[in-house]
Amino acid sequence: MSNPEEAKAPGLVRQTRKSGERVAHWIASRKAVAAGYTPKTVKLNVEMSDDQLAAACRRCQLEMVAWLGGDRGPRRQRNDGTVAALIRAYETDETSRFCVPQEQGGIKWNTRVYYQQLDEQLYRAVGTKLLSHLGRQDFQRWYLAFRDDDNGPPMLAKAKAIMEQFSRLLLYGVSAEIEGCERLYKIINGVGGKGSPKPMPFKGADRRTAQLTLDYVIAFCETAHRRGHHKMALATVLQFETSGNGRRHPQAPSTVPWCRADTAGPD
Questions:
Q1: Closest Cα to residue 56, out of 75, 35, 83, 84?
Q2: Could you report the per-residue pLDDT of 169-185, keeping only the tens digit for each?
Q3: Does domain 79-207 sit in CATH 1.20.120?
Q4: Phi-psi region of 195 (alpha: psi -120 to 50; beta: other; left: phi over 0)
Q5: Which of 115, 109, 119, 117 is nearest to 83 (CA)?
């Protein structure tokens, strides 16, 4: 019977050194190593969650399997110049903000999860593309493809977020001196300082104009209490008062029926 962790995170090896330091690596199969595949090992950031480690291992595994399936060109270096290799480096380099703990200047855990979701979409869609072959027209096509990927209205917010993540990957690549990243980063962001117009602005969704009003909150809370959803009423009031709308209505705390001590209970 196969190991459940091996199926979810193929090639993952965890170790604890004599010093007590925990380390994690993705290890290529013996068959692939014997055939000349590189990298043989990829060091992973142990601060990542189990799901993040598993995703990084699956990406490494997919590249190895594809290589075994027929791509027997020159021996690959750890960074073979593809978008997939850039993503892998960004997610496994201990000096990348993706891997650095938050208390040491890294990103928050929930931001890391969000960035990884965007990386997954880039990996699936354009992971095999060579950085040296990319240019302005490619980025415009990517944006349009991500925007129109689903049936229904254009996914502007999704497309903008993915292209901004690609720009973030390129910025990491510039600092890591990965060939081609500086040229591509300048194509998207230009050479001006912060606040300068970007040569390739990607349109996102329009700003939301709807907002909670005091009358709506009162009506919602009364209905929620009648139906026994007291926690929903409380959550709505907290959202209203912390959004800034409550501060514009000083009478709100005494007006909104947010808590019914005599009826409160589990929803």
A1: 84
A2: 999 999 989 989 999 99
A3: no
A4: left
A5: 119
